[in-house]
Amino acid sequence: MTQPAAAPQYPGISALIHKHLSNVPFTATTTGTDADIHVAAEHLLALVEGMNQKPELAFDMLANVTGIDMGEDTLAVKYNLYSFTHNHRVQVTVTVAWADRVIPSLTGIYRAADWHEREAAEMVGVVFAGHPNPKNLLLDEDLRIHPLLKSHPLQTVEILQGIEEGVPGFKF
Amino acid sequence: MTVWPEERAQTIDSFNTVDMTINVGPQHPATHGVFRMVLTVDGEVVVDCEPYIGYLHRGLEKLTENHDYRQSMGWWDRTDYLAGMCCEGAYCMAVEKLAGLEVPERAEYIRVMMMELSRINSHFMFLGAFGADVGSFGTSFVYAWRERERIYDFFEEVSGDRMFPTYFRPGGLQADLPENYESRVRWLLGSIRQGIEDLDGLLTGNEIFVERCRGLAPMTTERAINLGITGPILRATGLPWDLRKAQPYSVYDRMKFEIPVGEQGDIFDRYFVRLSEMYQSTKIIEQCLDQMPKGLVLNPDLPKTLRIDNAECYIRTEGTKGEYGVYAMARGGVKPYRMKLRSPSFCNLSALREMVVGSYVADAIIILGSLDIVLGEVDK
To answer: What is the full DSSP assignment across B75-117?
Structure first.
């Protein structure tokens, strides 16, 4: 998303995060509701751990995890974090290429991440490294498709069932 | 000390006990829909619990991506189908945020009124079903249904449908209220209060019910937050946190109401927080009726087709079960690029294993009931 030239480098709450976690490189933009922090996958754990631990930030709740197919073989994962102590919120974005779609799991910091990550993994195909139970959640256990990829057509799930990776299923 | 002869006691000590696996659901009334859990039990004590969801997965997000903004309205009703208006409210707020649409003031008041009626409706369902879980069989159901049908009649009158009204629109409402609706809502509030009192007397006044629920599956605030629990279950742990007050949306900042909290987060507190919340909702509806201005209910500048350029937002609303969030992203065109539902039941249910392990099998059903899940919302 393009920003006007006058916009600050660290808008909103991201300035505070940059102040307390200046060793983690990130850039920041804004969405309609939150400051949006863009961080590389290898720095994600350091950033989120710091945001959780520092008493000035105290992001103690992981509200939401969204996996998105951004087109051109890129995936994005959006984390919405919230602090009960300070009543502030932020969004963290990690963008990865399809060929290298491994993102560290946040289950060690937030136990709420468990089901959210399982859902994002099956829906768009992100691999969460270190997830304790990486099984399908909403989809059937032996289904190896990612329905929320833009290349996946609407209404043909049953035809794809069981074809990929030689898993037993229907034959057409 | 033993009452059996020596050799008999030795035989019992040398018994080899094996853990047993019990499948509960997916089609069982105690699971409140099509939810399945596999319990591993040692005698009567649950040692492991593996929840399985997805039996009601309808691909809500994929469908929303493939239809335009107004066509998708009907599916979002069907997420939390006990409180359709709350879901519509969140969806419409997300679209309005993306498009930068204004909502007329009268429409905001009517929305808040409808969302609170939905909340009461959903909590009545909880009281009825939870009473049945604990053992009141059908009595609590009958009392709850009396009021629910009356509220549904009011929904039907404005929209033509009971459970899936599709009454909200991005930018306002489908139609204004019918004639004399406000005065009849005031009558309805009296009826609702009577219904809450009846259920209060039936359940809170019942010693067996209270003893069954008190002290069962307590939860601390820190643990609940880390597990992602929101809504009445979080408030039952003693934290007065409600998105309607913490980050107000619509016209909730003009309403005066209290946030009922519990003490130790046990099953009884969860039940009592919901019961008290219903009284607060009737207060909010009364204030809506008092403050409601005259005027339009739909933004007159609304284009025939909504086209939204690059935009992104995360809307949080206080649904009936907790934080009902909608993440939305638009990248031009008439359809959203991505819409993700953060459903409260989904997150609350993911903590089920934590609560159930170590309890008795009979209590596991009550603990599941106290989460007040709606499978339409869990499975999307």
So the answer is: HHHTTSTTSHHHHHHHHHHHHHHHHT----HHHHHHHHHHHHH
Instruction: Give the pTM.
Output: 0.86
Residues A67 and B349: beta-carbon distance below 8 Å:
no
Mark yes or no for CB contact B61/A64 under 8 Å.
no
Dig out the tokens for B308 from the structure: 């939204």
Are residues A128 and A150 both part of a single domain? Answer: no
Provide CB contacts within 8 A for B77, sequence distance 6+. Answer: B84, B87, B88, B163, B164, B165, B166
Domain count, chain A: 2
- Domains of chain B, residue spans: 59-379
The C-alpha atoms of residue A23 and residue B196 are separated, in whole angstroms, by 55
- The H-or-E segment that residue B245 falls in is helix B243-246
Burial class (CB in 10 A: 0-12, 13-18, 19+), B41: middle
- pLDDT tens digits for B92-115? 999 999 988 889 999 999 999 999
Note whether B340 contacts A64, CB cutoff 8 Å: yes
CATH superfamily, domain at B59-379: Cytochrome-c3 Hydrogenase, chain B (1.10.645.10)
A7 occurs within a structural domain = no
Identify all chain A residues contacting B227, using CB atoms and an 8 Å cutoff: 111-112
**What CATH number is attached to the domain comprising A93?**
3.30.460.80
In this structure, what token pair is assigned to residue A103? 């993102």
* Structural domain that includes position A57: 13-138
Test B228 with A112 for CB contact under 8 angstroms: yes
Closest Cα of chain B to A19: distance in Å?
Answer: 25
CA closest to A66 among chain B residues: B340
ipTM of the prediction: 0.83
The tally of CA atoms less than 13 A away on the side-chain side of residue B11 is 5
Q: Which residues of A touch B (CB under 8 A)?
A: 1, 31-34, 36, 60-64, 66, 68, 78, 80, 84, 87, 89, 91, 110-112, 114-116, 123, 136-140, 147-148, 152, 154, 157
DSSP conformational letter for B133: I
Q: What is the pLDDT of residue A167?
A: 46
CB pairs A-B closer than 8 Å: 95
A124 with A81, same domain: the answer is: yes
Q: Which residue has the tokens 């974005």?
A: A93
Q: Say if A133 falls within a structural domain.
A: yes
* Residue A49: CB atoms within 10 Å: 15
Residue A166 reports pLDDT greater than 60: no
Domain for residue A151, yes or no? yes
- Would residue A100 count as lying in a domain? yes
| Set of chain A residues whose Cβ sits within 8 Å of the Cβ of B323 | 63
| Residue ranges for chain B with pLDDT beneath 70 | 1-16
Residues in A closer than 8 angstroms to B62, CB to CB, are: 147-148, 152, 154
Are residues A38 and A70 both part of a single domain? Answer: yes
Same-domain pairing of A133 and A149: no
CA dist B19 to A57, A145, B45, B115, Å? 45, 35, 10, 46
Whether A52 and A133 map to the same domain: the answer is yes
